[in-house]
Amino acid sequence: LSPGAKMGCFTFIKVMMILFNLAIFLSGGTLLGVGIWVKVDGQSFMDIFGALSSSVLQVVNVSYVLIVIGAILLIIGFLGCYGAQKESKCLLMMFFSVVLIIFIAEVAVAVVALVYTTLAESLLSAVVTPVLKEQYGKDQTFTTIWNTTMTKVHCCGLNNYTDFNDSSWFEEHGAYPPQCCNFVNSTQPCNAVSATQSNVTGCFEQILEEIRTNAGVAGGVAAGIGALEIAAMAVSMYLYCRLDEK
């Protein structure tokens, strides 16, 4: 290609890089704002997105997930957009490195989740169960999310009712949540005998079934995100290398 054509190609890719990362930056800001909103006024969020509240996201605290993802997207969007605009090799390399780390982490999580399902369940249980024991019944947003999940999905805890043993809720009420015994509209206490006879499954099993049902959609979304990340890394490295020739 002639020098003019190379410069035109460089300019076009630079503009696309700026616009793409500007969209990422704005998306990150939106998610960050929604995360803060959920943390401050979780009940309003639940009222608006009630049906959505029974999804996989309810296993963890939605507000923190949105805040973390939003912050990461803000950083990536800023590095890519500002780095391309200022033609900064340092910022472009930082952008490449951050995206690469995220890509490797996503691949590692996918491998663990697909190949080592039992290990993934153990890790998730080790992280979520202590939080469930400590926060359920104390944190209003956390409790509302779990109550909505257990009621709509007809599940109890992450694994089963024993997740609430020695929990703050059990120590205060002397019983398990009513959903563990299908006692949603009853004043009868949910004890160990009733919970065992009810045999309400854990929410983790329900989530796995939901994931299996929508595996194709989830795989397509994951593949699309991975392709975008690879394209972003390739473009940033192209700009990084072309800056040496300018």
TrEMBL record:
It is a multi-pass membrane protein. InterPro entries: Tetraspanin/Peripherin, Tetraspanin_animals, Tetraspanin_CS, Tetraspanin_EC2_sf. Keywords: Glycoprotein, Lysosome, Membrane, Transmembrane, Transmembrane helix. The chain crosses the membrane at residues 12-38, 58-79, 91-116, 217-241. It comes from the Eukaryota. It is found in: Lysosome membrane; Membrane. The keyword Glycoprotein applies. GO terms for cellular component: lysosomal membrane; plasma membrane. Structural component of specialized membrane microdomains known as tetraspanin-enriched microdomains (TERMs), which act as platforms for receptor clustering and signaling. Participates thereby in diverse biological functions such as cell signal transduction, adhesion, migration and protein trafficking. Regulates neuronal differentiation in response to NGF by facilitating NGF-mediated activation of NTRK1/TRKA receptor tyrosine kinase and subsequent downstream signaling pathways. Plays a role in the inhibition of TNFalpha-induced apoptosis. Interacts with SLC19A2. Interacts with NTRK1/TRKA. Belongs to the tetraspanin (TM4SF) family. This is Tetraspanin. It comes from Onychorhynchus coronatus. The lineage of its organism: Eukaryota, Metazoa, Chordata, Craniata, Vertebrata.
